[in-house]
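Subject: Re: docking follow-up (zinc ion)

Dear J.,

Thanks for your patience while I sorted out the input files. As discussed at Tuesday's group meeting, I've set up the holo structure prediction with zinc ion included as the bound ligand rather than trying to dock it afterwards. The sequence and the ligand SMILES I used are pasted below, so you can double-check that they match what you have on your end before we go further.
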Amino acid sequence: MNRRTFIKNAGLITAVFYAMPARMAVCRKGVQEKLMLLRYDTEWWGEPAEMAGFLEKLVKVHRQDEIPVTMFCRGFTLENMKLEFTAFHQETADDPLFDMQDHSYSHVGLGYERGKPVDILEADYERSFQIHSEIFGRRPTGIAICGTSDDGPFLPGFDATEKSKAEFEMVVKLGTRMINSNLSGIDGSREFINYKLLGHPEVMGFVSGYSDTAWMYRKEYGDPVEYMLKEVRTRSEQNEHMPVMFHDWVAWQKAPDKELSHVREIAETGRKLGYTLVTHLDCYHNKQLWQKASNHMSWFPVQKD
Ligand SMILES: [Zn+2]
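The structure tokens for the complex came back this morning:
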């Protein structure tokens, strides 16, 4: 291969890598620490009695197996189960295994093509943040974006429209420092980012995916645990991070048992395969993980004429 052909090919390979963020982690094999992020979107809207025992079991299981977890809680749910969450807070406030963050007050949509006006969204988030303050003694710094069916398609990123940019600016103003990785061209289930593109390099984007509403509640992939363990193994082989999104009501009301056995099995499998289990706040404190200037592979040998 002559030098010019090599340069051409190297350029082509680089272009392919840039176009395939999903594969980039493979290039970093042996360099990147694989992280597993378990979270519960905590959003139960019905009778508190139907969730009775859940928080106690969660504390017991996550402590016993030392499984760090982030709870993205709706303000409504905290209000609806105030006694339960106050007791939970008393038990876990000083325990770094439990990271308490936000999921809006009314499960409102952020980053959708037809969302509610920004001032309505702001009021919804502010209301939720205030309830967090009342119960947990602090405002949340993280948001997990809610899935909704009445706001139209989910936009490819917060950078997509003027309205979605304004929505992002609004949540940052409220104190948000971590939210789903949500920019055009970014694979939100695989990449940690920062939001420098929108003027906020201090805000982390985190990996998100594998909702149990799909694999456990709707059983879209056959046996739920078998499917998830297969996915953990695949991501491990590719040296990629592994996000898992449980929901309070799915884990308690739709799982095969009330021992959170499926959570334990997924966490244990991840650990055996070399994953480090972390909360979202742990990730935020790991600045190296998300504050890089870009996600490009800077070590790739670039040939110049
Ligand atoms: Zn939700």
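A couple of observations from a first look. The chain has one domain: 3-290. The domain at 3-290 is CATH 3.20.20.370 (TIM Barrel).

Let me know if you'd like me to rerun anything.

Best regards,
T.
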